[in-house]
Amino acid sequence: MIGSQVHWKTATEIAGLVKSKQISPREVVEGTIELIEQRNPSMNAVTYKAYDEARVKAAELERHIMNGGRTGALAGVPTLMKDLFAAKPGWPSTLGGISALKHLRGAEGAWSTFPLKMSNEDSLLLGQTNSPVFGFRGVTDNKFFGPTRNPFNLDYNAGGSSGGAAAVVADGIVPIAGGTDAGGSVRIPAAWTNTYGFQPSIGRIPFISRPNAFHLGTYIYEGPITRTVEDAALAMNALHGFDRRDPNSLRVKLDFTSALVQGVRGKKIGLTLDYGVFPVQPEIKDLISKTAQVFTQLGAHVEFVDLGIPYSQEQMSDAWCRMLAIPTAASMHALHEDGIDLFSEHRADIPDALMKWIDAVADINVQQISADQILRTSVFDCMNRVFDRFDLLLAPTLACMAVRNATDGSTEGPSAINGEKVNPLIGWCMTYLTNFSGHPSASVPAGLIDGLPVGMLIIGDRQADLDVIAASAAFEEARPWLQYYDIPARRALQ
Questions:
Q1: pTM greater than the 0.90 cutoff
Q2: Which residues contact 197 (CB under 8 A, 6 or more apart)?
Q3: Half-sphere exposure of 372 (CA within 13 A, CB side)
Q4: How many whole angstroms separate alpha carbon 209 and alpha carbon 96?
Q5: What CA–CA distance (Å, rounded) separates 319 from 333?
Q6: Contact 193/454 with Cβ under 8 angstroms?
Q7: Tally of CB atoms within 10 A around 66
């Protein structure tokens, strides 16, 4: 079986085999197609298949290699991109399973960063992955495509909004998949699927938003989901770089692979189990408290820290919803001008929980917008004060374990944790604090509870992306997580 040649291999391994001519790009593509067709039906992660296009690109790359041409760092590495806030000419963009958009195609020249830069490094794009409508929840489900099931237990959700991307990586189908992150959407599914989700500093990977480059929402990132830190570093080398179309874009060029051996000896690391405001399931707190001590063994100094956030978790999650509802409503109005009426004619495409926030946009006044930005500023200040004393901050990625899938496209997170009410869309996702602040972070696999993965968040100072990579790599070496992939490897296929 051709698929066995690439199943569970890292990007580093595949690129090495392709460059040394031990495996051809066409064999990689055919093997990946075989894996998608075998393993995706039970998981529902891949929503668009561009097999013929990938075959053409693979043949071109193979000819180039055989003729002695130079190749990119990710030559022959198969990948998939997320169907949300990402664009590739000729490919669909349903914005997370909006059926009314199923016939739309990306315009000529309309490339987002992930597909463009991965292609520039000779990676091979085979299709798109599932996400929720407008990315407005921490799980992956929609009425059009349905839920993406967690490869560790198909009864549970893979997380979101980049759940399809995380699932195909956790299932060994591809070693790298692209995600976007406006509230944790790279790191949330990473936490629930035992994968590594890296969210860089704001501006590190260009995020091109038009016609409005200065939307009122939170910081939105593109980022890789991988099984190893090394693969994430390779992806980041490809993805980052200056683009003047992004007003936040950073000019500094980094070598992310250089951080893989830096370690954490002598680093001061803060630890919080709840940021002082979030209810967190006790078993998660216990696991993260114990797991964080690995860094002490690695020569770092770890101590608990109080961030002093002066807002409740309900106030912050409501602010996040308002911040994202405003540009989402603007997108819906733009679609309406193009003849696609999601407010009335196609209202059924929009989940009721999201539509509640969209409908509320009309009543948001300048005082409320100002109050939300003041809240965001306060979180930013609290986060920065941590880095006056510490090099890194550790926390649980999420406040709860993976949730069971609904049967009608309406999967949500919990509405209460430890008896305390939380917003089921985002209130259990403690990740969105860095979307407020712009700090880099990564979710690393911290272990399993009852067979389901748990993530630990490593947060760095602004623009200190290499510190996050270094800490992640040191943790991975001390607490390897590859053995847990035996669970999805053995799962039943349909």
A1: yes
A2: 162, 166, 179, 186, 187, 188, 189, 190, 191, 223, 224, 225, 442, 443, 455
A3: 21
A4: 17
A5: 21
A6: no
A7: 10
What residue type is 118 in one-letter code?
Answer: M
DSSP class of 318: H
H runs (alpha helix) in 279-365: 282-291, 294-297, 313-337, 352-360
Tell me the one-letter amino acid at 415. S
- In the chain, the N- to C-terminal Cα span, in Å, equals 18
Look up residue 54 and give its two tokens.
């990938």
Measured distance CA(478)–CA(71) in Å, rounded: 33
What angle separates helix 11-19 from helix 229-239, to the nearest 10 degrees? 70
| Structural domains of the chain sorted by starting position, each given as residue range(s) with its CATH number in brackets | 2-489 (3.90.1300.10)
Q: Write the DSSP string, 449-489.
A: ETTEEEEEEEEE-TT-HHHHHHHHHHHHHHS--GGGGHHHH
Distance of CA 304 to the CA centre of its chain: 27
- Residues 185-243: tens digit of each pLDDT: 999 999 999 999 999 999 999 999 888 898 778 999 999 999 999 999 999 999 999 99
Name the residue type at position 491: R
Q: Which of 431, 429, 246, 215 is nearest to 326 (CA)?
A: 215
328-337: which pairs have CB atoms within 8 A and are 24 or more residues apart? 328/134, 328/136, 328/354, 328/357, 328/358, 329/358, 329/361, 330/212, 330/215, 331/95, 331/134, 332/358, 335/101
Question: What backbone torsions phi and psi does residue 157 show, to the nearest 5 degrees?
Answer: -85, 155
β-pair partners for 224: 178
pLDDT digits (tens, 9 = 90+) for 43-68: 999 999 999 999 999 999 999 999 99
**Exposure string over 131-154, b if 16+ CB within 10 A, otherwise e:** bbbbbbbbbbbbbbbbbbbbbbbb
**Can you give the length of the chain in residues?**
494
